[in-house]
Known about the structure:
Layout: H1 2-27, E1 29-34, E2 39-44, E3 49-54, H2 64-94
Antiparallel strand pairs: 1-2, 2-3
Amino acid sequence: xxxxxxxxxxxQELQGRMEKMxxxxxxxxxxxxxxxxxxxxxxxxKGALKKISIDPSLLKSAEKEIVEDLIxxxxxxxxxKAERAMEEKMRELTGGLPLxxxxxxx
Length: 106
């Protein structure tokens, strides 16, 4: 019975740490870029778009398709960085506990 109480306590502690991590992910920002920095996108680690920056040299009607492609590439770069930030926070949270592959806790 004591083991069960201890486990319940650890689960509550883990839940508290998860809630703290979720709040940190809301404020953690990552920036992805494309075209040698001509386009950059800033996201929260949870994927919310915060900012798009486009170099003025790209703002020509003939460059529209290139700009759209660069925005897409910068977004993909930022999303990959956001996923790495979440994975890092999760490793910190779980203390390296082995979790089943593909388990998403958030």
